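Researcher: Good morning. I'm working through a list of sequences from a screen, and I'd like to move beyond sequence-only analysis. For each chain I'm collecting a predicted structure so we can compare shapes side by side. This is the next one on the list. No need for commentary yet; just the structure.
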Amino acid sequence: MRRTVAWCVAAVASASLIGPVDAHPAPVKTQVQAAYDALTPAQRVGQLFMAGISSTRPTHAAVVELRAHAVGSVILVGNSSVGIVETSTVVGRLNSGLAIDGLRPFVATDQEGGEVQRLTGPGFSTMPTALEQGHVTPAQLQARATKWGQQLATAGVSLNLAPVADTVPATHPRSNQPIGHYDREYGHTPAVVAAHVAAVVRGEASGGVDIAVKHFPGLGRASGNTDLTVHVTDPTSRHSPYLAPFQVGVNAGAPFVMVSLATYPHIDPSHPACFSKTVMTDMLRGDLGFRGVVISDSFHAVAVRSVPPGKAALEYFRAGGTMLLDTQRAPIYAMEKAVLAEQRSDPSFAKTIKSDVLRVLSAKASAGLL
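Model: Good morning. Structure tokens for this chain:
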């Protein structure tokens, strides 16, 4: 298996890993810097957060509240069956309500397939589970992913929090609560998962939507579901073959990687991945060479919900996170306040936050949102 996984990684190793700011020519760098300079301190910090809002009927009050707190991106929560046209109307309202002088939010969804397909209805394909997707060739899946990406782009969605790069072993896969129980994995070996992750990354990108490979460094052998319980662990180690699908996704050009909320005793037994410098900085940035946006899984999950919001945000950004997702709005406002206060008192932290904001703005420039 190690030789097969190594071959999968090597097959796409030539893909560019240039950082998001350095990847752009001088005029775009200038545009990103100009956008940064035009923002207030609160608006800059707001770019680092993604909040949940209804996928079908976002209220005017909710949009006004998000704008008042300068939240830079949103995720459409709840299942919707209204179809592409009505979804595009919803997204249009969000863009007009949350844009800052032409700087628009990332509007995200979870569109994996099977039970995790948030947007359905007229114009949207009925997507099979990832496990079923793994039964077609990568070339066939890439073609299908292009179509799915086009549908999201037509609806105005700019970021899909998919594909899942977790590998669930073939032995009792359904016992894996977060992934295998719902057939969210593309297969039962890292080699199969890697090939199909690359296909989805490339396909949806060609369809016009950004993607987020998840849940680094893996939940395929997790002891529980971080959405529902605390102290979830996974036995992945720093140089495990189970990391290959994430490396392949990065090499294929994924602009986002989502970090999990589980703890990895063989990597950093003292911190969940979302608070671990070893996971996000040393491994994801260092070992895998990722230069895009590191986004969290939702901090509304039970796994981290007991951590005070301000403390959670500071730990996340200090460890190497770029954008923090919470499907609830209120905790984000406390997080923003904590980040603003900390950067005023800690020049080193302020430098980190500035780098993160420029990284997000650069991603928005690449996505046509700037």
